[in-house]
């Protein structure tokens, strides 16, 4: 039982990342009709926003500490971060420690700007082109962005820790009546799950309860009629592209302490996220979220030692096998709409 609970938790953790990326992909496809293969790169850029801010906070100056000496008796040279100089020792240390959560504020305007530039500068020229053309051009853009990150940050993963307050593990066992230390789960992975839940709920609430969101949903259903009402639906869809980029970027920011970011992390998540979108149903936001968590949990169970020993390599293909089964029985996915990508 404890192993099952632990795998469910692991699945919710993976599913959170899948669901956030798939949600952004579906927003873009549902509003603009564009299959955006550069969306994984937005996840990667968000992760490196956190890395960048963490590095900026640690920029320091060298001072001589007369109270400390080396083994030769010479005063030691120590590095003091500028944020410690500006805000004091305790506040400066707290800012450095909380670099990843603070990167959310840093990443939002950057990701929205990147989204606007991407949509206005490139993707708008492919709205009426075949989906194959959209896939090729956005996939090429993803490779370019990946190589830019590799050039500036190198090819190796860059560890960026969570705040010290969230570096331990939560004892689920005692809460559920098990013995102590039987079901331990990292605090930050729980934080990531709740963060993802808040973002997903926020996106759905924005689309459901705001006038802007209602117009966007109407445009997704019948773009031409909304345009005839005198509403500039294209401008609203461009804003939605920026918001979708921000969702992907925030998913990347908060994922940094879970997996040290590298230049190809966007591609690693992109393929799986597209499978999630297809399984959930192209253009279906609830389907993307449902499929994200479902496939995350299935992948987690398939990664158990007992399962791998019985079926070697199953953890590498389980998502694709499930996708094949679902699409054979439900060609439009779990919650797909009639007519979407069926022309």
From TrEMBL:
Q: Where in the cell is it found?
A: Cell membrane
Q: Which organism is it from?
A: Jannaschia aquimarina
The name this protein goes by in its record: LivH_6 protein
Pfam families, sorted: BPD_transp_2
The residues that cross the membrane are 16-35, 42-60, 98-123, 190-216, 237-258, 270-295, 307-330
Q: Keyword Cell membrane, does the record have it?
A: yes
Q: Report membrane topology.
A: Multi-pass membrane protein
Query: GO MF terms on file?
Result: transmembrane transporter activity
Name the gene. Answer: livH_6
Origin superkingdom = Bacteria
Annotated GO biological processes are: amino acid transport
């Amino acid at each position: 039982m404890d192993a099952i609970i632990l795998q469910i938790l692991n699945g919710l953790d993976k599913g959170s990342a899948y669901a956030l990326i798939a949600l952004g992909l579906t927003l873009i496809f549902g509003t603009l009709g564009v299959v955006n293969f550069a969306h994984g790169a937005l996840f990667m850029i968000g992760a490196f926003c956190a890395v960048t801010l963490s590095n900026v906070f640690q920029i320091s100056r060298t001072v001589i500490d007369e109270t400390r000496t080396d083994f030769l008796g010479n005063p030691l040279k120590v590095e003091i971060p500028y944020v410690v100089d500006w805000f004091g020792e305790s506040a400066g240390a707290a800012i450095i420690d909380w670099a990843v959560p603070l990167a959310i504020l840093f990443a939002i305007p950057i990701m929205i700007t990147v989204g606007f530039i991407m949509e206005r500068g490139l993707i708008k020229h492919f709205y009426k082109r075949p989906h194959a053309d959209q896939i090729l051009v956005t996939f090429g853009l993803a490779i370019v962005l990946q190589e830019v990150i590799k050039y500036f940050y190198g090819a190796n993963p860059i560890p960026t820790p969570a705040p010290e307050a969230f570096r331990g593990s939560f004892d689920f066992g005692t809460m559920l009546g098990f013995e102590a230390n039987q079901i331990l789960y990292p605090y930050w992975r729980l934080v990531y799950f709740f963060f993802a839940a808040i973002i997903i709920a926020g996106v759905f609430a924005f689309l459901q309860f705001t006038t802007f969101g209602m117009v966007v949903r109407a445009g997704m259903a019948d773009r031409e009629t909304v345009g005839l009402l005198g509403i500039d639906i294209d401008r609203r869809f461009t804003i939605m592209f920026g918001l979708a980029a921000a969702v992907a970027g925030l998913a990347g920011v908060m994922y940094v302490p879970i997996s040290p970011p590298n230049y190809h992390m966007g591609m690693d998540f992109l393929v799986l996220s597209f499978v999630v979108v297809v399984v959930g149903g192209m253009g279906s936001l609830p389907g993307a979220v449902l499929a994200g968590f479902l496939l995350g949990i299935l992948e987690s169970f398939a990664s158990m030692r007992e399962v791998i020993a019985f079926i070697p390599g199953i953890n590498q293909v389980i998502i694709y096998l499930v996708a094949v089964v679902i699409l054979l029985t439900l060609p439009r996915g779990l919650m797909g709409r009639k007519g979407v990508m069926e022309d």
